[in-house]
Structure formats: C-alpha cells, structure tokens
Specification:
The chain has 5 helices and 6 strands; from the N terminus they run αααβαβββαββ. By secondary structure, it is an alpha+beta fold. A 6-stranded antiparallel sheet has the order 3-2-4-1-5-6, with helices on one face. It is elongated. The protein starts with a helix and ends in a 9-residue tail after the last strand.
Amino acid sequence: AAIENSIIFTLEEGKFRTRDIVGDAGSVSTTAYTDAIIANLGKKPSHAFVREYKAIQMPQVSSAPDFVKVKERSVAGADVYVEWAGSVDALGQGLEQAVEGSPFRLHMVSSRGTKLYPGGSAITDTVDAFTGRFMKRDAGDASDAEILDLLGRVGAKARWTHVEKLNVFDGALGYTKSQGED
C-alpha cells in the first residue's frame, strides 16, 4: 500500500513522468522517477482513491499431490505439435489424409493459440510450429496404442515434436480450446 500510494502521489505532483507516460518532452529518467517514489514513501495521494489492503486468507489444501480425486477419466484425443514451413492448408489436408481409416479425425490446426484450419483466422503472423488437434471418431477412450499409431501417421506427413493427451476429468475438459475453436 505504501509503494502504491507513493507512486500515485508522485504522479499527482506532475514533476516526475517517464517517457512512456509523457513522451520525450519533459520526461525524466527511470532512476529519477524511482528516487522520487522512494522520497515520497509514506505520503498519500490527495485526489486518487487510496486502497487499503488486507492480508490474503489462503484456504488449507492437502499437501498430497493427488488431492483432487477423479471418478471418471478419459482421453478424447491428442494434440500433436509439428514443425511445418508450408501453408496451413497443405498441412491440414495432409494431416486429414494421414488419419483416414484411423480412430482419429483432424479437428483443427492451430498456431499460437488460434485456430487456422479449417476455416480459421486469417492470421498472417505464424511461425513454423503448429498443433494438430485430433479427436476420437467415436466416444471411446483413446488408447496409448492408438495414439502411437497416430504419431506414426502424422510423422509420415510432418515432423512432430511433442504430443499431449486431451484428458477429460469427470466430464470436464482437461485442456484448453484455441481461439476460434468450436
């Protein structure tokens, strides 16, 4: 609270503003600004709202590593991370072909948390790292053997670097969705 009040007091004085606040004209160095904040410790702003802080009350949580007990767990699919220097459309079509006749279907291809294929964002700032999200065609649990087969199929089209199971815990998704994913 003392630090925050000192920062606001210093800003209210109007003498010490860094370049990110006022631009080059009339700005002071970060060191001068910091020195002013330190000199104003214990002072409270006159115009801005002063917040009072209360100590956080943390709940007591078991130290057991598995304190959350799951009743039902399943694997809905897998995210396979690949390196790819071509177009996202070529990657998506190649991955769709790779999994034909397998227990998986390509749900989407994403990069940096945004769905790009099929019909995804028009993002242009991508890198050579993509994620293929593969979902089980049926409602069953994806086995390790099926995921290993999936990796072989994907590896025939693109260099895969990492895989993550898409776990579902007691009916709740244990993975995040990408922006634009249904």
